[in-house]
Design goal:
Helix 2 crosses helix 3. The chain is an alpha+beta fold. The strands form five sheets. Strands 10-11-12-16-15-14-13 form a seven-stranded antiparallel sheet. The protein contains 14 helices and 19 strands. It folds into three domains: 250 residues, no CATH class; 150 residues, 3-Layer(aba) Sandwich (Protein Transport Mog1p, Chain A); 53 residues, Membrane-bound Lytic Murein Transglycosylase D, Chain A. Bound molecules: zinc ion. The site of zinc ion has 6 residues, from helix 3 and helix 5.
Length: 482
């Protein structure tokens, strides 16, 4: 959960007039019917970029941003659309992904960087996303979704403007990350190889990168933003397909560099996993050192720290808990503010009382209403005031499941508490460090003794371009998480 952000992803600019045109695309050589002019692409890119930055945050490390941007600009210069105003941004999310908006806006997540083996692999990821723009896949996807009248409006829960619980499984970010078809992906791979080779990087990094991403089990890392695998088709098929492009690039361009050591240098110290500024999940506990509070969700539940709310879910059951920062009530008591905002979201109060939660003023009540996909539901919800902000903590279950879950909901609500300064300062981010493997080191021993459970042994292997069954070689420079 970040600082309070507008919880609604504004609908993609509705274009009243489509400048429909048929043209040959210089990147793909294909004849293409495009519903969107370049100006429109730029306009959409610009507008959605504001949302991406607000919702995901920009990774606050100038050197890393500059490094990624320099590589991106070099690649874009080799593309068929060198004159677009290209932008390359590292967004501050732990998930492993990269994506593009029309008009030349390219993003990689902070989370993908440790999983790339060298600079050439980063160039291939950026080249792939540039390919989506030059081949106008991004523009076409937007044209399609608008043509179908599908306003991309994702948002969240308990905000009156938005249908509650429509997208519990996703965060608003899913809307920005377009899904392309397999053919588009293969084309983007080939274009990425072309741009990387022309820019002087080793094009064989593309299949290496795809192999690594293919190894990543979706469960091994943080949720929140969909991972590459959920927005891209299975890598195995793509690895075979891209080999021909790699071989062709190798015969026409001079051998490319990987810049392995340079890449490791740049990666040393990068934040891994949750960023404490947006709150961290430790087991079933959620800590927000910047906003200075902690809460414990029911043990064993999956806790997902999204950009605009935290959602905890009981595995296999449709019961949820939600934590969200509310807009500040203006000149009203907590009870009025609570009941009215719940009412606007379609829930009416069955009971309720003003009370305190660990010394914090609160209004706790039971509500009933209807939720998309779940039907009639009942909620136990607390509006809690802490440091002049209002937090909503709610447990929700379909009517039949409510009674047995009520004690767990109430217990979690009662666990919301302020953090002391000392406690907040003790929450530190994990970081990637470069380490030379010693004889006898195994992924497991590194995970146990250096990472203290922050990362699994298998994830360490994948991060270092190894199959899970391999062990590190003595002297090998490794990325470890400490
Ligand atoms: Zn793609």
């Amino acid at each position: 959960m970040g600082r309070y952000r507008s919880l609604v992803l504004i609908p993609i600019l509705v274009l009243s007039v489509f400048g429909a045109a048929c043209a040959t695309n210089p990147a793909t050589g294909q004849h293409q019917f495009s519903l969107m002019s370049e100006d429109q692409e730029l306009q959409i890119g610009q507008q959605q970029d504001v949302e991406v930055r607000r919702q995901m945050g920009v990774y606050a490390d100038r050197a890393t941003q500059q490094y990624v941007s320099d590589i991106g600009v070099r690649l874009a210069r080799e593309s068929e659309r060198p004159n677009l105003p290209w932008h390359f941004t590292v967004v501050d999310v732990p998930a492993i992904n990269a994506f593009a908006l029309p008009g030349g806006y390219i993003y990689v997540t902070r989370g993908i960087l440790p999983f790339l083996g060298d600079e050439a692999e980063l160039a291939c990821v950026l080249g792939h996303e540039i390919g989506h723009v030059t081949a106008r896949h991004a523009a076409q996807q937007y044209s399609k979704s608008m043509g179908a009248g599908l306003g991309v409006l994702l948002g969240s829960i308990f905000v009156p403007e938005v249908r509650p619980f429509g997208q519990l499984a996703e965060t608003g970010l899913g809307a920005v990350i377009l899904k392309y078809g397999r053919d588009d992906e293969i084309q983007a791979d080939e274009l990425g190889v072309r741009y990387a080779a022309r820019g002087g990087w080793d094009p064989a990094a593309m299949p290496r990168m795809l192999t690594t991403l293919g190894r990543i089990d979706e469960d091994t890392d943080n949720k929140g933003v969909p991972n590459w695998l959920s927005t891209h088709p299975s890598p195995e098929n793509r690895i075979g397909r891209v080999q021909a492009a790699v071989q062709q690039a190798e015969t026409t361009a001079p051998p490319g560099v990987t810049n392995h050591d340079v890449y490791l240098q740049h990666l040393d110290g990068i934040v891994y996993g949750d960023n404490p500024e947006q709150g961290v999940v430790r087991g079933s506990v959620f800590l927000h050192p910047s906003l200075r509070f902690a809460i414990e969700f029911p043990p064993g539940w999956d806790v997902n720290n999204g950009q605009s709310e935290v959602v905890a879910k009981e595995p296999g059951v449709n019961t949820f808990m939600i934590l969200q920062q509310m807009p500040r009530p203006v000149g009203r008591g907590i009870e009025d503010a609570a009941v009215q905002s719940m009412q606007r979201a379609g829930f009416h109060a069955l009971d309720g009382e003003e009370t305190t939660v660990n010394g914090l003023p609160a209004f706790i009540a039971t509500y009933q209403g209807t939720v998309q996909d779940l039907g009639r539901v009942r909620l136990r919800a607390a509006h809690i005031v802490h440091e002049r902000r209002v937090y909503l903590v709610a447990g929700l279950a379909p009517l039949a499941l409510y009674e047995p879950h009520e004690p767990a909901f109430s217990q979690a609500i009662g666990s919301f508490r302020p953090m002391t300064r000392g406690e907040a300062e003790a929450v530190r981010p994990s970081r990637v460090n470069v380490y030379a493997a010693r004889a006898g080191d195994t992924w497991q021993s590194i995970a146990d003794h250096m990472s203290h459970g922050v990362i699994k042994a298998a994830t360490l292997a994948i991060m270092n371009t190894h199959a899970i069954a391999d062990e590190p070689r003595p002297g090998e420079r490794l990325k470890v998480v400490i």
